[in-house]
Design goal:
Methyltransferase, Cobalt-precorrin-4 Transmethylase, Domain 2, nucleotide-binding, four-stranded mixed β-sheet, alpha+beta, 16 helices, Schlafen_AlbA_2_dom_sf, ATP-binding, six-stranded mixed β-sheet, Heat Shock Protein 90, 4 domains
Length: 483
């Protein structure tokens, strides 16, 4: 990091003057002053749309020359506490600031890097400060600036964080599969490096760093990496894992395992091909035709895998999407509780923690347009007369289970109720209503045995998932409870 810090210091020195988010000092290291400035600089950085703010000791604030400093932050103690610990306890909310001692060629410099405020203004001893010129007044004394700062606060976006800093242009081109990016977005490959970097920067896959170098963002790494293992562990552990078993439980031997090293976008087709290549075949009887198909529809697998990648909680450490293939089911899981209840995922617009990632994957035609994917999965499941998928939310994960073909008599009561509910949802989305006859067709029940479908409808009514479309006319059909 030393070379980057030297370039960063030199870039800050080239600024014409101190800014609201950057301040030079010689040796003045009074603790309360540092605490106030941490608050003020952090808030000012967000106000000025900067990711970080800086204090530098050992720089003349008039000439910006490196003069060196005797300040030793690691040696400072306040009330018996190390300076960094004391500051951390005095700043609210917690702030991941960092002191770094830099051996600049012209003298020793101490660099304090302060992240921009997120969520709420940063306070020191319960008072928030702001920088105005070289002054550090209380934020409360400037209500218009306070309001503007609040407006500029934004929720944390994992995609915008840095995966790797201070990399050369050659390293960017080596670590990211840029040619696949242009192919997937249907753009011509530029004939020069500057054009490639301009496009990647416009996507926020990379951002300009100091010293003419680049930072690769989490978004760029997770989607375009040639090898995720070349990135820090918070990226590498997000790789997709695919495991196939010889039987119906995890106790059975593993027949195939794939730990994807490529980024999600550039490795997606290989992943889907690997899954489909291992699927057993199933005979599907359609309109007077008998055809052989994979056990699960490919479009359903594509959409569900893409959803697992897009909607996971990237902030959960040490966990990534996992796909497991058993002899009669496919389980697709991702870390993080869903933002929408599973029973409403088909009809409500999706909500993603990773909007930039979702948007780019849609432009790459990896998944369906927003809000049109899961209903197609349910529809395909019906066409193939498979049991309804199980959308299961757990404490820290989301899982979708696709089941192989089973006759109505082989389905459990819960599976029948789920299928009935999703059938009613699909009908409602088309402006129609579920009826006994349509549910018979869904399950492949002979109309002579319509009482079997009626029994499922009654259980689904008892479960509170559907209701009569018109209580005054019970033959009018059924709609989801929320319709």
């Amino acid at each position: 990091m030393t070379n980057r810090d030297i370039d960063l210091i030199d870039e800050l020195r080239r600024l014409p003057a101190e800014t609201a988010w950057m301040e030079f000092k010689r040796d003045n290291a009074e603790p309360n002053g540092i605490g106030k400035r941490c608050s003020a600089l952090s808030n000012a950085a967000r106000f000025e749309s900067q990711d970080c703010a800086y204090m530098l000791w050992g720089i003349d604030d008039a000439t910006h020359e490196v003069v060196g400093t005797s300040f030793e932050p690691d040696a400072e103690k306040i009330s018996g506490q190390p300076l960094s610990l004391w500051l951390a306890n005095c700043l609210q909310p917690s702030l991941a600031f960092e002191f770094r001692s830099v051996a600049h060629p012209n003298g020793r410099v101490v660099l304090l890097e302060v992240p921009a405020a997120t969520g709420s203004p940063v306070s020191f001893n319960n008072i928030a400060y702001i920088r105005i010129g070289s002054a550090t007044p209380k934020l409360a004394d400037y209500p218009e600036r306070h309001q503007k700062l609040i407006e500029r606060m934004r929720p944390y976006r994992w995609e915008q964080d840095t995966a790797m800093r201070y990399v050369t242009g050659d390293d960017v081109l080596r670590r990211l599969d840029y040619s696949q990016y242009f192919r997937l977005t249907d753009q011509p490959l530029p004939d020069n490096r500057a054009g490639i970097f301009d496009k990647l920067a416009a996507e926020r896959a990379i951002v300009s760093d100091v010293g003419g170098r680049w930072s690769i963002t989490n978004l760029g790494a997770i989607l375009l990496a040639n090898n995720l293992d070349e990135f820090p562990i918070h990226i590498a552990r997000k790789a997709v894992r695919f495991v196939a078993y010889a039987g119906s439980t995890r106790a059975q031997p593993v027949t195939h395992r794939l730990d994807m090293k490529k980024g999600y976008a550039v490795g997606f087709e290989t992943l889907i091909e690997s899954i489909n290549g291992l699927l057993p075949r199933n005979e599907h009887i359609g309109s007077a035709l008998r055809e052989s198909h994979p056990l699960f529809p490919e479009l359903a697998i594509r959409e569900l895998v893409a959803n697992a990648l897009i909607h996971q909680d990237m902030t959960i450490a040490g966990a990534g999407p996992q796909i497991e293939l058993f002899d009669q089911r496919l389980e697709i899981g991702n870390p993080g509780q869903p933002l929408i209840k599973p029973e409403r995922m088909v009809d409500l617009p999706p909500r993603s923690r990773n909007e930039a990632l979702a948007s780019l994957m849609r432009r790459m035609n990896i998944c369906e347009e927003q809000g049109s994917g899961l209903d197609k999965v349910i529809q395909l499941v019906e066409v193939f007369q498979l049991p309804a998928p199980w959308l299961r939310a757990e404490e820290s994960s989301m899982q979708v289970i696709l089941y192989g073909p089973r006759k109505f008599a082989e389905m459990s009561p819960d599976e029948r109720v789920r299928a009935c509910y999703f059938h009613a949802v699909l009908k409602a989305l088309r402006g129609d209503r579920m009826k006994n006859a349509s549910l018979c067709a869904r399950f492949g029940i002979d109309p002579k045995n319509a009482a079997m479908a009626t029994a499922v409808i009654n259980k689904t009514l008892d479960a509170g998932l559907i209701r009569h479309a018109d209580p005054e006319h019970l033959r009018a059909g059924y709609v989801p409870i929320w319709a």
